[in-house]
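User: Run a structure prediction on this.
Assistant: Running it now.
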Amino acid sequence: MAYDVPPLPYAYDALEPHIDEQTMHLHHDKHHQTYVDKVNAALEGTDLAESPIEDVIADLDAVPDAKRTAVRNNGGGHLNHSLFWESMSPDGGGSPSGDLAEAIDETFGSLDELKEKVNTAGANQFGSGWAWLVLDGDTLAVVASANQDNPTSKGQTPLLGVDVWEHAYYLSYQNRRPDYLNAWWNTVDWGVVESRYAAARS
């Protein structure tokens, strides 16, 4: 069962002006496709080729040594981007509700404080990587990861992640990563994040 790039759940230009159409084409069709092609090649013929990518990334020690780096980088890229596309919507922005909203207030003080922590983690990530809101045990936390590492590998559940590789923003924002991070919150689909939080706690 080879992996596939999931189709975008919205049009390529649907996130404008926050994320431009050309970036979405390149990011989704080219970059994500490359990760999928390479992880499929790495896992071909192994016992893990039929496993969900979440399970593979959660237990990288089970991947043969000679293939582990390729799977970590490219399988992580596939998982990260699959989560990323689903986390955004042309109707995004606003605020979470329900249990997630309460947990954010209890943990961070407010949604604005959460945004500041994520933005800081993303802006300070040296080189390429991601900033995440995760569930770590029973507690929300903000973490950063390098390259295409995913919090699943550390036993955490990713609820929301923002890509801070340059290919995610450079056409519109150039070196202004903080501007991209601020704009990106206007795309967040909190309903999806709430569903992930509920599933992780069930």
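The chain is about 50% helix and 10% strand.
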